[in-house]
Amino acid sequence: MPSVDICFSPELLPLYNLQGRVAVVVDILRATSSMVTALAQGVTYLVPHSELDPCRAMAAEGYLTAAERDGVQADGVDLGNSPFGYLDGVVPVRGRAVAITTTNGTRALHLSAAAEHVVVGAFLNLGAVAEFLRQQQRDVVVVCAGWKGMFCLEDTLFGGALAARLAPGFDTTSSDATLAALDLWQAASSNVAGYLLKSAHVRRLNHLEAHKDMEFCVRQDVYDLVPVFRNGKIIVAQ
Amino acid sequence: MPSVDICFSPELLPLYNLQGRVAVVVDILRATSSMVTALAQGVTYLVPHSELDPCRAMAAEGYLTAAERDGVQADGVDLGNSPFGYLDGVVPVRGRAVAITTTNGTRALHLSAAAEHVVVGAFLNLGAVAEFLRQQQRDVVVVCAGWKGMFCLEDTLFGGALAARLAPGFDTTSSDATLAALDLWQAASSNVAGYLLKSAHVRRLNHLEAHKDMEFCVRQDVYDLVPVFRNGKIIVAQ
Predict the structure, then answer these.
(1) How many whole angstroms separate alpha carbon A24 and alpha carbon A27?
(2) pLDDT, tens digit (0-9, with 9 covering 90-100), for B19-44
(3) Is residue B26 part of a domain?
(4) Distance CA A89, CA A103 (A)
(5) Which GO terms describe its molecular function (chains A, B) (predicted)?
(6) Of A122, A157, A193, A168, the residue nearest A8 (C-alpha)
(7) Chain A: residue whose CA lies nearest to B6
(8) A164-200 pLDDT per residue, tens
(9) Kind and range of the H or E element at A235?
(10) Which of B58, B73, B98, B112 would give a disulfide with B23, using CB separation of 3.0 to 4.6 Å?
(11) Is B3 strand, coil or helix?
């Protein structure tokens, strides 16, 4: 039976063997939630960048550019990191490619490249990711982007929610991280947004737009698609 | 108000600023539980070693030697890593110094040396550690030894239990790790041993002696002493 493990920080990834496994990279607030939303709104693909300047330079090649630093849209780019940037129609996104850089999510994607598949996970596409993993029948490692390398609640809750969806067809009891995430998910699942209001990260983003984003980002199964990171691009899995 | 943060793995310690703070190093199964027990039974001090051979060599200098690798007593030493080694009278320990090496705990101690004080924490001395921290009035970082660098439930539960004891005089809400540990502690506290039976680490040690150790190691407030790591030695704080 394939297993589900959870890596709470990209800094811990060297301890995990990703070879032959599926890595599910998650940065609920907000990188992976926005990537899923972007593809659902007709963005053709995304190119994640670790650094801001190379990302910004992609505008000259016809890309839309999206970037945040410390939770705020960076200067000189088309979009921030809010999923609503792909929904509100201010910047037309359908048919465009997007170069994106974020504080935590991009780093987690690049560090996961050794996996057989690197999937972009969010609550927004939770069911689609679970179905993809059931089809793959490979061991799963959920890679939490965290907050500047540290443990964060929202990515952990996603890990717990995914493990809960995959049980009992997957082994969710051989990793203490997965056991903890399942218990935290049980405590939070009846009101995820309410639970996250106590999170240090969410309180750090304590303003109206951030709360609106957070409430959107914890909605489950809004989009039925699975983005994968392959050859430097995030595309919808065939 | 001083704060309580929790570092789930020594691998994450570079992200934490220990300067001016108190580090509480914890390796419930079983290094720090055994260290507390050793000092309570009259061991004068302990010298933690990262490597087995230098530890074993300390026998020539009159030390008792204690070592485990992968949960089993190492060859050619006096004691393993069970707290009962200091309790069962087979090896007289009163008045002796002990050279000790363990898989995870020693590493966590050495990596925490930048802190103002490095305290050895366990459920066995939970109340004494909490009282010491209240007297210090400094920010606290609980350093979980983990299992080979990975997250483990028992050390996390200790972090939650300590945070619960320190609230409301300490800020226990500014770190997602502390919030998670508090929720896990709430789920586990009515039956800690029962809760840990599901832990991957505990099941790995699934034999009679290990269960006896585990049930002892989760008992709270058995010993009223606070070991500190100072100048390479673990001694009882004056």
Answers:
(1) 10
(2) 999 999 999 999 999 999 999 999 99
(3) yes
(4) 25
(5) 2-phosphosulfolactate phosphatase activity; magnesium ion binding; sulfopyruvate decarboxylase activity
(6) A157
(7) A151
(8) 999 999 999 999 999 999 999 999 999 999 999 888 7
(9) strand A233-236
(10) B112
(11) strand
Residues 65-124 of A with CB under 8 A from B: none
State how far the Cα of A56 lies from the Cα of A78, in Å rounded to an integer.
9
Residues 161-190 of A with CB under 8 A from B: 173-177, 179-180, 183-184, 186-187
Q: What is the 3-state secondary structure (H, E, C) of A80-91?
A: CCCHHHHCCCCC
* Domain that includes residue B123, residue range: 4-233
The domain spanning residue B155 has which CATH number? Answer: 3.90.1560.10
Q: Is residue B161 part of a domain?
A: yes
SS3 (DSSP) at B154: helix
| ipTM of this predicted structure | 0.95
* Parallel/antiparallel/unpaired status of strands A64-69 and A72-73: antiparallel
Cβ-Cβ contacts under 8 Å, B201 against chain A: 176
**Helical spans, DSSP H, in A41-104:** 52-57
Contacts of A150 in chain B (CB under 8 A): 12, 15, 176-177
| Domain assignment present for B34 | yes
- Asked if the C-beta of A15 comes within 8 angstroms of chain B's C-beta atoms, the answer is yes
Q: Which residues of B118-136 are buried (b: 16+ CB within 10 A; e: fewer)?
A: bbbbbbbbbbbbbebbeee
CA A185 → CA A8, A30, A72, B69, distances in Å? 14, 19, 28, 34
Query: From the CA of A54, how many Å to the nearest CA of chain B?
Result: 26
In total, how many domains does chain B have? 1
Report which of B2, B233, B30, B22 is spatially closest to residue B143, judged by C-alpha positions. Answer: B22
Tokens encoding A203: 């309180």
Does the beta-carbon distance from A176 to B11 stay under 8 Å?
A: no
Question: What is the three-class DSSP state of B135?
Answer: helix
The first and second tokens of residue B164, run together, are 């619960």
Residues linked to residue A7 through DSSP beta bridges, in sequence order: A143
Band of the pLDDT at B207, cuts 50, 70, 90?
Answer: low
What is the token pair recorded at A211?
A: 């709360």
What is B185-233 written as a DSSP string?
Answer: HHHHGGGHHHHHTT-HHHHHT-SHHHHHHHHHHT--SS----EEEETTE
Q: What does the buried/exposed string (b/e) look like for B44-82 if buried means 16 or more CB atoms within 10 Å of the residue's CB? A: ebbbbbeebeebbebeeeebbbbbbeebebbeebbbbbb
Task: State both tokens at A53.
Answer: 């300047």
Distance of CA B98 to the CA centre of its chain: 16
